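Batch manifest, entry 17 of 40.
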Amino acid sequence: MIERVDVLVCGGGPTGLLAGLGLARQGISVAVIEKCQKSEQAKFGRASLLYPRTMELLDQVDVWEHMAEIAHISRGYVNYNGGKRLISGTYHSIFNQLHGTYFDYVVNIRQKYSEEIFRKALEEKGGSFYEQYELLSIVQDDDAADDYALTVRVKNNATGEEHQVKCKYLVGADGKNSAVRQLSEIAFVGDDTGIKWFRMDAVVKTDMPDARVGMASIESPIYGHVLWMCQDHGRTRIGFSLPPKLADRFGTDVTEAQVREAAQEAVAPFSLEFEKVDWWTLYSVGQRVAETFRRKRVFLAGDACHSHSSGAGQGMNAGAQDALNLSWKLGGFLKGWYDESVLDTYEEERRPEAQRIIDQDKTLSALITGKIPEGVGRPGATSFEVLGDFIASTMRYTLGLDVHYETNLLNQKANIGLVSAGWPGPDVLLRRPGSRISLRLHQVTKNVGRFHVLVFTGNPALTGESLRSLRSYMDSEDSFTHKLPDIFNFLTIIPGDAPQSDHYLGISRFGKAFYDSDMSAACKYGFSAALGGVVVLRPDGILGYSGELGEGKELGEYFLRFVKASLESPQEPIAKKVAEIESKPTGEVEFDGETTETKPVANGVNGVHADTQTSIPIREGPTETSVAA
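Output type: structure tokens
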């Protein structure tokens, strides 16, 4: 068992593993402990439904591709009432609101497989995973000399041995009964609804049409709204509520035989036969949120700080967003890049989202059981109709596509563009120099704890002065790139196409060059393709800043608000380095035996900037460590 680690994560489910992975990808020392023995824990069941925004986040930490090989990908839905197929239904709105993302589908992959992929990725990046270790106590020493201020005692449930772990920070991702939350004396505010739901995963036979289309629902006069979802490996998940009037029938010791019988009643008039039941559960719905997501050096994430029903499938999706919001901030803080104010934004951003999920869940869980809450729905509508209307009105948020954060230290209100700060930056299609094949922006803006600065150049015939101003600022001693740590990944995005970027722009590019061949990328960000602009995407893909092309100083002021000055010697301005290189003879020999010299060339293509002449150095942009090509 490890004795000292920068961050200890308690909880080996998806949220804990993703938090650990996010930290490990930044080179942070991290260990994840799990009290259960995963090989003997329920192998299937639990969280499975993933939405587009979550898939975008998982793609940016390089685990989605592995999940896609296993998951059941759904692009279809059908609803049945009285055995008759309806064109629209409760979850029909999923598929007619899937716009603004290249992940235009939903998937089901059971938690067992997600955890295996996350755990492997964590360990490949240097993180550690320990199972059968239970948390016993947390002691914080504010006067610790080496910053390992937390002493955590754990017990090996297999041997009974106790161990002591010293860490700088502790992340509690250990579920709704979180030991971290309880030991930190953080209240879990909310109540139990009294609603009970069945969930089961099985291999089934049925005469229901389109049983493997992806997602379906059946309106049952006994069990209310019945969920039918296709899973990985040919499995199907069936879910429905237990009406209070049937509680006595099932009693307290529910058997698998009773669950099978209830499922057969719930999907009537269709037939249902079970070839194999992998997992089933009957659970009570509670809706709670922690009074705080942070207490000094302890953070909470996932079900440890918000608990709700599985009606909208938000559990793992919200947990992933918690984990990947927290990890880049905590990792950067531990590297000395930020002060504590950046850590404070975790709760500022994620707690309101958790509360919003719970507020929606109160209405949703009631409607699924057939009850219409007071003040909800139109007069005379049935519970099924009200449920459909409510789901449609909240679906963009459920899909994660409307999840956003308010203006704060990291999200600066913009005065240009159509994407507001705090919203996910749109994924757009770009091309590498010379390529006829497009790639997605998210493929070159992976989450490794670095900010991505997108320079939309516009047409240099119109933006030449602004481009030169930005380049002059970036090369000067006053540039934030010379004062702050190297946490910036620059991309130059040029409208249309050009044979060589620097020559076309009249300046050396900012990082690697990409082409916006149909100019749709600039439009999605709300810029004029001709006039351009600058965008900053946070490591988690959220837009933090957008500004005009020549506003280098304003761009620097954004970063200087929360990034600490580098302790290392300032970097030499790029222009100075280029001048030194160009002042030296190249040593190259032409066929006539004369040494070549750096010669001025006319800038631009088709006469653009043809009236100016300057040497065009080829400058490599900042390295993109761990960023996939």
